[in-house]
Write a structure and sequence with these properties.
With 100 residues, chain A is of the alpha+beta class. Helix content of chain A is 24%, strand content 30%. Chain A is globular and about 40 Å long. In chain A, 29% of the residues are buried. Chain B has 148 residues and is an alpha+beta fold. Chain B has one domain: Molybdopterin biosynthesis MoaE subunit (Aldehyde Oxidoreductase, domain 3), CATH 3.90.1170. Chain B is 28% helix and 35% strand. Chain B contains three helices and eight strands, in the order βαβββαβββαβ. The C terminus of chain B is likely disordered.
Chain lengths: 100, 148
């Protein structure tokens, strides 16, 4: 079950309880053309690396950014991509930083 | 009110940062301000940069840097301010500063802060560039030198 849908940040459209919101920044945002997308996940969740692979399949232009990005779940860095991402989580794609 | 860490869409003020970095025993103040440059890119000349940040993670990381600068360099006051949104060429995008009893520590702390900010804090910039205008060939005048 994979269902990706672009949406705007702060969208008024209510999210289904079985989805993960994926926030995209910089080159990742530009590759997809949206600041966030929603991904339907099974009730038991899915591994972070599976989720990243699903994103790459859905958005081929996102693949280069995914290869160099760090990933964040609920504002915490993910050290282990075997961790499960569950419905209601927020997942973020962080391309290399470039402040200053 | 003291504001060490700031992510804002409003213009940053170097004068305000200097006030933030004042303290009676803080004789050395090092302050760095980064401005938007009109770099050339493949798309053309940069006229603006768009900055975005992942909040609240970015603020949390900035606070961690502030704590490290205080602990490692003995900084009494620290400033870590960053703009977000669209900034035109010449606008100040970032101000970092450290106030310490002496200059060596202040320089080291400020250098540490800007270098770590660039690699540890989830802030990004994407450029807005404008293609260079092509020059129209001038109509040739009689007697004017010509190529070839």
């Amino acid at each position: 079950m994979q269902f990706l849908q672009p949406c705007g940040v702060g969208s008024a459209v209510p999210r289904s309880p079985s989805t993960v919101r994926i926030r995209l920044f910089a080159t990742a945002r530009e590759a997809v053309g949206a600041a966030s997308v929603d991904l339907a996940v099974p009730d038991e969740g899915m591994r972070a690396d599976e989720l990243v692979a699903a994103l790459g399949r859905k958005y081929p232009r996102l693949r280069p950014a995914l290869r160099t990005s760090r990933f964040v779940r609920n504002d915490r860095y993910l050290d282990d991509l075997a961790e499960r991402i569950r419905p209601g989580d927020e997942f973020a794609v962080h391309p290399p930083y470039g402040g200053g | 009110m003291s504001v060490s860490v700031l992510l804002t869409a409003r213009a940053l003020s170097v004068e305000q940062a200097m006030r933030e970095l004042s303290g009676p025993a803080l004789g050395g103040v090092a302050l760095f301000a980064g401005r938007v440059r009109p770099d050339r890119t493949r798309a053309g000349r940069v006229w603006a940069l768009f900055y975005e940040a992942h909040e609240p993670l970015a603020t949390r990381r900035l606070r961690e840097l502030e704590r490290t600068a205080r602990r490692r360099f003995g900084a009494g006051r620290v400033v870590l301010w960053h703009r977000i949104g669209r900034l035109r060429v010449g606008e100040v995008a970032v101000i970092v500063g450290a106030a310490c009893p002496h200059r060596d520590a202040a320089f080291e702390a400020a250098r540490y802060l800007i270098e770590q900010l660039k690699v540890e804090v989830p802030i990004w910039k994407t450029d807005r560039a404008r293609p260079a205008r092509r020059r129209r060939p001038r109509p040739s005048r009689p007697g004017a030198p010509s190529a070839g």
